[in-house]
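Standup notes
- HV: blocked on the assembly model, inputs below
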Amino acid sequence: MLPLFILVPLFCLILLNVPPKAIVKRPAFWLVAALPLVQVFLTAFHPVAVWDEIRNPFNSYFIFNLSVDALSTVLLLSIGIVVFIAALVGRYTLSGETQRFNFFNLLLVAFLGMNATVMVQDIFALYVFIEVTAVASFILIAMQKDKPALEGAFKYIILSVVATVLMLSSIALIVMAAGDTSFAAVSSAIRAYPASVLVKVAVNLFLCGLFIKAGIVPFHGWLPDAYSAAPSSVSVLLAGIITKVSGVYVLIRMVVTVFGIEQSPQAVLMFVGALSIVAGALAAIGQSDFKRMLAYSSVSQVGYIILGLGCGTPLALAGAVFHLFNHALFKTLLFVNAAAVQEKLGTVDMNKMSGLSVKMPVTGATSVVALLSTAGIPPLSGFWSKLIIAMALWQSGQYAYTIIAVLASVLTLAYFLSMQRRVFFGKLQEGLENLTEARLGLILPAIILAVVTVGVGLAFPIVLDKLILPVQNILK
Amino acid sequence: MAINFILVVALLLAALWTVMTARLIRSAFGLALTSAVLAILLFRLDSPMAAVFELSVCAGLIPVIFVTTISLTHRLSQDAFQIRQKERWGKYWYLLVIVVLVGVLLSRRALLPDVPLPVVTHPTDVRIVMWNMHHVDLLGQVAVILAGVFGVVILFKEVKK
């Protein structure tokens, strides 16, 4: 069954482009929105263990080395949710049927690329699908072809190419030592020669490449430009899931499953994690562009995930993966809110807006849910994941990093409250008296995401038990 | 051995052309050609897996990214092209010497890695390596080529308008 997660989007992509465009342009949205919804249903309600047992005719023709464990399940679920929301936002914010059709096509490419990335069991296949996702993202960012979009896309592709060079060089060295590229062969070769300079260079090159892809400080230069210059639906996709799959998920997979925690530079991971938390939060405070502030906030929140990964205990890993899932939810929600504001005001400059909650109550209320979750306020989902990371750090004796993680949450609350006060609270900006709430296509995704964010927080024991704690098994 | 030597010379010439030409699109094509020659060389040296990777990455994936990016740029005028072409030869004539020297240095035993090299057990038939061992990669190649086509259609076609 697993190959269908790649083959069905590929088939749909071909299906959309073979018949005359006039016939397929309108139903394209329904097709693109249905696929991630089915994926969400399968990953949320279908036990992963039986997936491999379900036969399909493709198994006779293709040999796919794919596998899904608890970590991949969390990512497949997150991909399904964010791609569905991005399709909705794209439908209502992109102008012109042709632009929307192009967006849906590239969304399908990114969708299949991300699905494959979280399922492959081979380091080279992993690289190929990271590139598939990167090429789709690069075109999506540049789609509007104005100067900021081209600049954002250019920065993204240049840093992406640097990451590619680092990862390919690492793969070459790994093949030299392991003779194969499967995760199992690479893992056993790395564990067999722990003192080898070749192995250490290979591991560190790969990690540096992934730091760029994940936008971790000091490799985060491309991220604010790419997020803020892209169309709203693309920002949702990039911030919500693409950087998480291409950078953060792959980093977790490589460190835990392939390189092994003990072979990875845990101290470096924790240091860059803490650096990202603080630097991202401080940079976010000084922003007046709504989307740039959210981009720096992403840098900061990804820092928590890396800090948990670097800690390396089963509890810290579970916390890191939980925060990855939560961050996909609340950051997507915040970018949907930014899309709503941009659609109604035509700008994301926070100096030109105030008191919007009066006219846009749903957007204002859902953004409060997202900001409180990001800052780690109970009982929202972000609180639980940050609490687990902090507890794991404290238990493993990392007191300084625990204090940094907790204090940085106060910084997060500060810049988000500042944003909320400037944008949504206070007196309505002059000239905005006729402002109305964003259309249903932008309110609906915001409501869905806010309900899920609150729901995950309230149903925390169930989510933890069914979805998050099984992630600890990948350490065994 | 003679064929391998000819391939190395062809590789160097293709690589040199890639770096020296002032036209970006020719440079991308030169890179693909260099990779194709290198892939043949790797096959001849009993490294079919490395050859398939070389072929798929540098002759497949990377030119797609380059061509998509180049589609956003303006073509150089003939005069500007000729001036830049001359400048490149004047500035980078020593590159070939450096490449040959680095190649000789890297081929010395002292630069071999500090782990025992594994015995390669993969089949040496390119068809088996390409079609039987990497089905998923092939799907990825198809996807990235489709993305490249969308890129050229979306970015290039409308820029021309």
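- HV (later): unblocked. Chain B touches chain A at residues 49-50, 53, 56-57, 61, 64-65, 68-69, 72, 113-115, 117-122, 132-137, 139-144, 146-148, 150-151, 153-155, 158-159 (CB under 8 Å). The radius of gyration of chain B is 19 Å.
- Next: hand off to the docking folks.
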